[in-house]
Structures are given as structure tokens and as C-alpha cells.
Amino acid sequence: MKALILFLALAGCGAQPTPQMWGAERTDVTRDGRSYTVFQKGRQVEVIRLGWAARGEHQAIRATMIALVQEVTGCRLAETTLQGDSGEMRGRVSCPRK
Fold first, then answer.
1. Which of 28, 55, 71, 74 is spaced 20 to 30 Å from 96 by Cα?
2. Residue 7: what pLDDT?
3. Is 85 left (phi over 0), alpha (psi -120 to 50) or beta?
4. Which pLDDT tens digit goes with each residue over 77-92?
5. What is the pLDDT of residue 4?
6. By CB neighbour count within 10 A (0-12 exposed, 13-18 middle, 19+ buried), where does 91 fall?
7. For residue 6, what pLDDT is reported?
8. Contact status, residue 59 vs residue 53, Cβ threshold 8 Å
């Protein structure tokens, strides 16, 4: 019974942004069978991969996460600001003026 309660509590957690990204716009996306959450707050962006990844998949996942930044935000990622790995990455974007 305790295991079931723990499972249900953890299942409701989902992706949560870092404290600096609280209040950010959230977009949930699925690509190639994987779920990602993209947070954007001003010029800051954070991408979180949900779920497990096997050895050898991380390079492709990272490339997908970078592509999702532009696709979801409509902004260009400043790759020199990119930090993180295939589980969670953050960076800065430059967006076209509206």
C-alpha cells in the first residue's frame, strides 16, 4: 500500500522548472516517442526530457532538445549559452521583434 501511495505521488510531479524559471510559459511536446517540456521566460529557455534513455541515445536526444527550442519558442538559441545534458538543458534565446 505504501508503494502505491509513493507511486501516485511521484506520478503527479511531472517536469518542474528551476526556481529561476518559475512563472515561465510551459509547452509539452512529444518527439520520436519521447516527452519533453519546454519552459520560456523572456530570453531564458529550459528543456526537460521526461523518461529514461538508454546508453547511446543521448547525443540524438540532445540534438532534438536543441531543435525543440527554436520550434516551440520561434526564437534562435544562442548555443554558447547552452548548459546541461540530455536530461535538462538551459540557455538564452534571441527572438525576432514583433
1. 28
2. 46
3. beta
4. 998 999 999 999 999 9
5. 45
6. buried
7. 44
8. no
What is the pLDDT, as a whole number, of residue 31? 95
Burial class, 77, CB count within 10 angstroms (exposed 0-12 / middle 13-18 / buried 19+): buried
Grid look-up 515561465 returns 24
**Interior angle at CA 77, CA 19 and CA 55, nearest 5:** 75
Q: The cell 511521484 sits on which residue?
A: 10
**Taking the CB of residue 29, how many other CB atoms lie within 10 A of it?**
15
SS (H, E, C) the chain: CHHHHHHHHHHCCCCCCCHHHCCCEEEEEEECCEEEEEEEECCEEEEEEECCCCCCCHHHHHHHHHHHHHHHHCCEEEEEEEEECCCEEEEEEECCCC
Domains of the chain by residue range: 14-94
- What are 49's three cell numbers? 526530457
**CA nearest 36: which of 65, 57, 13, 70?**
65
